[in-house]
Amino acid sequence: xxxxxxxxxxxxxxxxxxxxxxxxxQEIGHKDLAAMVGDxxxxxxxxxxxxxxxxVKAGKSSFVNALLDTGRDICAVAPQPMTDTIQQIVYGETxxxxxxxxxxxxxxxxxDILKEIAIVxxxxxxxxxxxHQEVTERFxxxxxxxxxxxxxxxxxxxxAWEFFDFIHTDWHKKVVFILQQKDxxxxxxxxxxxxxxYDYAVKKGIAEPVIFCTSAKAELDGAFDQSGFSQVRDYxxxxxxxxxxxxxxxxxxxxTSYGILDRIHTDLDTRRExxxxxxIFRDDIVQTLENxxxxxxxxxxxxxxxxxxxxDRITKNVGQELNDGLSFPxxxxxxxxxxxxxxxxxxxxxxxxxxxxxxxxxxxxxxKLSDGVVDLADSVQQMAKMIDLKVRQSNTVVRNDQxxxxxxxxxxxxxxxxxxxxxGRFMSRSENFTDERxxxxxxxxxxxxxxxxxAAIIGLILAGVTHTAVFDITGGVLxxxxxxxxxxxxxxxxxxIVSGYNTEINTGRERMNQTLEEKLKLYVxxxxxxxxxxxxxxxxxxxxxxxxxxxxxxxxxxxxxxxxDIDGNLGx
Length: 572
What we know:
The chain is 67% helix and 8% strand. The chain is of the alpha/beta class.
């Protein structure tokens, strides 16, 4: 009685734990897993459950009829396969049949043995109806003992042993083997097949296989000493009935719960590994963009340096000419000649000098731009090409056939497919390498040019932008010089004029440097941002993954801990 009370208390604890396991399976969203745990939960208070499995025409239904000993067929028997549904046979005060669904019916019988056990008769493991196998596999995890019925004449069929692997390897279920229809063999042949079954079961991992050779026909005909059923009933009395089944069923339910948790743990580990690989991939994308941005900025610095060197050389030459032209002899000569020609005046000379500065700067800076802009354009485009390659080489760990988390694999696959397609479209559209906010002057680029190569369109835009930035500034310099030179007379001091020139030139140089850096590097950052925007959906997916994996991991550990406590309290 004390044992029964302890067993009942542990069963109540296990029921709460399996309830949590059921909630976890529902959160995971895997329908088959949730249904499996739901079945386990619903049957925990049921009698000890035998599940009868085996191939079609192995004699399963005849075995059940003989075991129940009701004097009539409870399970239909005929030369052709008759068990077209799974039949759960349980105790009931009156005989009734409830159809649960097209593939499952529940039979209630007033048979005493059914007060302590329930029997599930299944279609053949090689049944042609797919739903039979599916429903059978839902009963196996909730079973307490599997009676694997083989046709005595041939216990070696491959499909039957494949199903045995599911029962024993996947769910660690206790299996008792039945060699049914022994009356169709000679004692010598039966002994050979019994030994063969024993050896094969040992090879499959059963340490001490339990095998019963039975003849349902002999049992139903009253030849009880020849049928082998007395040994089966003795086994049931020894191991199941008389109160022993409750503790054994509790142990089986713990084992089944462990099996379900193991499946969750295995697939969760795979999911963690996939998240790790995806995080590495995403971090690699970020790092690659950072590296490529630095490379592109380096190319921009080289371009700016070359432009400024050309600017310095031209303005220095003009400055030297201004300085020399303002010497006293030169001024005297120009004043004297101005008497006879208006074009030889100081003002005309300064205007010519200003025009020369503009012409030389135009030629020099255009040359520098055409030399340097292609390298910068190639660097920016290389940024996108490298990311495109990495997207197509992302590592997949969780597969679409993953048992529990195949929906996660499907969602991830769809996200990556969308990413690849979106990035392919991004690479093919030259307008993605422009920025009208930065470069409004290029909004009218002709469709023919825009449809050209990425390098060409980038080069066109950068050349236009840089050209505008440079000559907006040089135009400002020339305006300043024009104001400076206006009204100059022979009496103006040479030092003041040259100093004013240098001030305007230096101011223009600083403005040019600052504007080029801002525009070119902002452009590079803009392209980097556009590339990064393609990964927003992936980022959100990874955020959800991290949260879900952590949540499921915590729930798993909590349930595992409770199972271990119950397992430890139950003892051996």
